[in-house]
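Could someone model magnesium ion with this protein?
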Amino acid sequence: MSTAPVLELAGLERHFAGAGGTVRAADGVTLTVGRGEVVGLVGESGSGKSTVGRCAVRLDEPTGGTVRINGTDVTTLSRRALRPLRKDFHLVFQDPSSSLDPRMTVGEIVAEPLRLHGIAKNKEAAHARVRELLAQVGLRPEHADRHPHELSGGQRQRISIARALSVDPDLLVADEPTSALDVSVQASVLNLLADLQRDRGFGCLFITHDLAAVEYLADRIAVMYLGQIVEQAPTRELFADPKHPYTQALLSAAPVPDPVTQRTRERIVLSGELPSPLAPPPGCRFHTRCPLAVDRCRTEVPALRTLDGGREVSCHLVADDGTAPDAASRTIPNTRTATR
Ligand SMILES: Nc1ncnc2c1ncn2[C@@H]1O[C@H](COP(=O)(O)OP(=O)(O)O)[C@@H](O)[C@H]1O
Ligand SMILES: [Mg+2]
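Reply:
Sure, complex below.
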């Protein structure tokens, strides 16, 4: 078994050229998922998370940078050369209805990767494996004969997970795996993912805008803004002490109590919409919405720097020793108590 990280993105770029200009959906993303590690990728809708996820499993073609899986550069491998490697990485989509073939039975859907990769020796072995997988995701053997439309959204997502894990991949990319589901079943699907990850030990890039979910599942979190990573830190450190003003704003929008003080954070309301990735603002891309921006932020691009202690952040206002300004102190100057 390789000892390389399961996923290494280096300077990953995905630009979409169109009539209106070039959309810089992913613009230099460097990110590693170690063996058995869960890395959360968070950020507002439109920040480029799905683009990164799709490029990571080569469902989309990067326009720059490299993608390595288990140490192998897969950035420009042909479909054919990629095929034998495909068993090592899988994507679970947001909407299971669109990713499951409606004409196939559940049994066929779950067995398909086993067949494609020649893993089950014969029909009986495939059958047995499907039953085992269904049980692992909390479904009954008779579900194998049903079609996706006969099942609930939560059950369909369990099937996507069973299918993705059928060949024991080293890397699972889960793109908002619960956000299309009823709120009432989201927690059970998240718990299932967490249990399976612990048992099987696959590495996972967990894409979400659900901060409670990412705090629960991820060992480490990368925060994306307009196609770039602006902060990266172990989960506990990020939630306890977000450094980037964008991360501070993002976390303040979720009613998650501070793990140390048990106080909920002061809400930071960002002004304006996410700017268009067609024309990212010059300097720091966040400066147009940052309550703390100074002149330098409008002209000079901040590098993603490693701080003392190993966290990464791209903000001119954060010192190398980690001293960071508090965005909340600027937005709501007269209400210093927790508001929610
Ligand atoms: N195929 C495409 N063609 C053109 N633009 C795209 C395409 N896919 C995504 N984008 C654009 O790239 C940006 C990032 O999208 P996406 O990766 O889906 O973000 P997220 O998953 O964080 O919501 C958005 O502005 C989106 O409109
Ligand atoms: Mg998305």
